[in-house]
Amino acid sequence: MRNIGILLSGRGSNFVAIADSIAAGRIPDARIAVVISNKPDAPGIAVACKRSFEALVIASKGKAREDHDREVAASLKQHGVELVCLAGYMRLLSPWFVQQFPRRILNIHPSLLPAFPGLEAQEQAFAYGVKISGCTVHFVDEELDHGAIIVQKAVHVRDDDNERTLAARILEQEHLAYTEAINVVLDGKFEIVGRRMKLRTQNSG
After folding, report:
1. Active-site annotation holds for 109
2. Are 1-101 and 107-205 equal in CATH topology?
3. Rg of the chain's alpha carbons, rounded to an integer?
């Protein structure tokens, strides 16, 4: 059984999608070992408690980034976490934290990276007038929205879309993409060459 740790700052809809996928057997041989929020009032923590997950608040306010990261990392390791999934975690992780979990931290971003990194990605895409947007699950490295891409899902932008309707359709794809990406990473049959993730086939060893 592989232990997954969830980090969130808000409602945690991707956390719920991951939990539902595990419960339905779409992510086999895995469990959510702990859910951690840096914000005491995060709705996702209330959901985690209601679903009887181990839920912790490790407040970040007033703490240096790495000091807070050390507290979070210690808790993840205490719970035997093998894979860290960011689910709306609104903090940039320190290089120290990333080094504790090499190629074991996943993030989901609501755009087709490298387009529109950072905040308000859907609004950026809509304002730019793109015809296709989507979402990206990627490994976390020391730079914002930068690590090697694992899964991307495309969403066509309709003429009658606004930022809200586009964001809602992207979110539906996020839930599918995260499950797919977690399975790829836990399966371990991949290699990263430069920036490209390549799946290893049986013939390639």
Report:
1. yes
2. yes
3. 17
Distance CA 203, CA 205 (A): 6
87 within 8 A of 14, measured Cβ to Cβ = yes
How far apart are the C-alpha atoms of 203 and 190, rounded to whole Å? Answer: 13
> What are the structural domain ranges in the chain?
1-101, 107-205
In angstroms, the CA 89 to CA 37 distance is 8
The 10s digit of each residue's pLDDT in 164-190 is 999 999 999 999 999 999 999 999 989
Which pLDDT tens digit goes with each residue over 111-167?
Answer: 999 999 988 888 898 889 999 999 999 999 888 778 999 999 999 999 999 989 999
Query: Which residue in the list 109, 138, 146, 156 is annotated as catalytic?
Result: 109
Q: Are 199 and 100 in contact (CB under 8 A)?
A: no
For residue 200, name the pLDDT band (cuts at 50, 70, 90). Answer: confident
Architecture label for domain 1-101: 3-Layer(aba) Sandwich (3.40)
Evaluate the omega torsion of the peptide bond into residue 43 and state whether it is cis, within 30 degrees of 0. Answer: no
The CATH number of 107-205, from 3.30.230.10, 3.30.710.10, 3.40.50.1110, 3.40.50.170, is 3.40.50.170
